[in-house]
Design goal:
This protein is mainly alpha-helical. It has 19 helices and no strands. InterPro entries: dGTPase, dGTPase-like, dNTPase_2, HD/PDEase_dom, HD_domain, HDIG_dom, PHydrolase_assoc_dom.
Length: 375
């Protein structure tokens, strides 16, 4: 069975088909992989994707390795997104490609790193991790002899461009597949940031009971299980938190799809977003997010660490701008075309947390520095 035949059999009328997918640089069709399967594979095999394993999600420097990295968060988002896509009969390959791409532009040290680069590039376009993902897959990755970047389909690139523009691009709206990835991202980070905060000790279990969504999940777990230890109970609550949000989203979205009566992907693009949780669940999610913001993301330990890494990254930026003649390709070309600051931002955004912390090794000589920057 060909990819086209499989999609015709399995997908809803409003799902995006891979047949007819367009790339900037024309390529022959693959004999057994669809266009979106190839996109997914190109993202997974990219150097930028591998580096997500050593980039901060929220927590850094805690040593024991339990908490999420940017890579594990990405894989969890992709897992939830595929579950949603299959239940809604959307294109799972497109959804997975979008999910695996969505955070590939994050710099080291998470949002703290993004804040530093954005400030350093003030007046010359700033820095946004969603836009950076496009720079990576359209220019900076050098894996193929016939074109720069990964030459992904316009369906995948357009979904990422909408993220970079905050979902406000002119023209048709987002595909249902892109909407699924946005929803999966929100579901994943709420549950997993709470889990990591508990493991690291920034919160106690009882603190989260102030959020109705967490409290109701805990109540459901306690009703089913009477003798769980602390760790088992926490993990069961996290699982319940994911499951209840996914179930609510599927029910609410199926209802909206029935009411909308879409007959094609174009119908879905032309309409307001329909993929999302119910209004009641959205209120509960926002309450949990507010709690996490106040008690986790603004925790003194976290803020102190953020200040430290921001200073380190800022110093590295200034050092590399002074020595931008050391930049390897394609960053040297970026520096020539768009200025040294942008070339330096591109290379720093591609480095891992540990690589930035080792930037002091530039003091050991220019040749060593060039090797170190060969990313």
């Amino acid at each position: 069975m060909t990819a086209d035949e499989r999609e015709a059999l399995l997908l809803a009328s409003f799902a995006v088909r891979s047949a007819g997918a367009v790339r900037r640089h024309a390529e022959p069709l693959h004999r057994y992989r669809s266009a979106f399967q190839r996109d997914r594979d190109r993202i997974v095999h990219s150097a930028a994707f591998r580096r997500l394993a050593q980039k901060t999600q929220v927590f850094t420097g805690d040593g024991h390795g339990y908490h999420r990295t940017r890579l594990t968060h990405t894989m969890e988002v992709a897992s939830i997104a595929r579950t949603l896509a299959r239940a809604l009969r959307l294109n799972e390959d497109l959804v997975e490609a979008l999910a695996l791409l969505h955070d590939i532009g994050h710099p080291p040290f998470g949002h703290a790193g993004e804040d530093v680069l954005d400030a350093k590039l003030e007046g010359v376009g700033g820095f946004n991790h969603n836009a950076q993902a496009l720079r990576i897959v359209e220019r900076l990755e050098q894996r193929y002899p016939n074109f720069p970047g990964l030459n992904l389909t316009t369906d995948v690139l357009d979904g990422q461009r909408r993220r970079a523009a905050g979902g406000k691009r002119h023209g048709p709206g987002a595909t249902l597949e892109a909407q699924v990835v946005e929803a999966a991202d929100s579901i994943a980070y709420n549950a997993h940031d709470a889990d990591d905060a508990l493991e690291i000790g920034l919160l106690e279990f009882k603190d989260l009971l102030d959020a109705e969504l967490w409290a109701s999940a805990a109540e459901a777990v306690d009703h089913r299980h009477s003798a769980l230890d602390t760790h088992q109970r926490r993990r069961a609550v996290v699982h319940e938190l994911l499951d209840v949000q996914v179930g609510d989203l599927l029910n609410a979205t199926q209802r909206r799809l029935t009411e909308a009566g879409f007959d094609s992907p174009d119908d879905a693009r032309a309409a307001p977003p329909v993929v999302g949780v119910s209004a009641a669940m959205q209120v509960r999610k926002r309450q949990l997010e507010a709690l996490l913001f106040e008690r986790v993301y603004r925790h003194p330990r976290l803020l102190e660490r953020r200040d430290q890494v921001k200073q380190t990254l800022g110093n590295a930026f200034d050092e590399l701008v002074r020595k931008h003649d050391m930049l390897p390709e394609p960053y040297a070309s970026v520096a020539q075309d768009e200025g040294a600051a942008r070339g330096v931002a591109d290379i720093l955004a591609n480095l891992t947390d540990d690589a930035v912390l080792s930037i002091k090794r530039f003091d050991h000589g220019a040749e060593h520095g060039r090797d170190f920057l060969d990313v």
